[in-house]
Here is the input.
Amino acid sequence: MSTSIHKILVSDQVVLEKIYLIRAQKIMLDIDLAIMYQVETRALKQAVKRNQLRFPDDFMFQLTKQEWKEVITNCDNLTETAKYSPATPFAFTEQGVAMLIKYIK
Here is the structure.
């Protein structure tokens, strides 16, 4: 029985540029994680919603509109699509990213 394993190589610098400090926690946004793991943001959010009990507040939270405005204002490395998204993104802590990997395909 063979198993196909997809390896995604992302440079350390790219990852470091996608880490933000929000609510005194280092987080990564769902938008950036979707790009890194080559899935649609919508699919990533659906995976989280289907497994919500696995993502407590110290693993993941949704940004408030004010937090999202501050990120947009202060971060030059956001994609244009992200800046104009009507929905506020999910923010994942390191533990949340590790848990997320189990649920996205």
Notes: Residues 1-5 have pLDDT under 50 and may be disordered. The chain has one domain: 12-103. The longest strand covers residues 25-29. The helical segments are 12-17, 30-36, 41-50, 65-74, 80-83, 94-103.
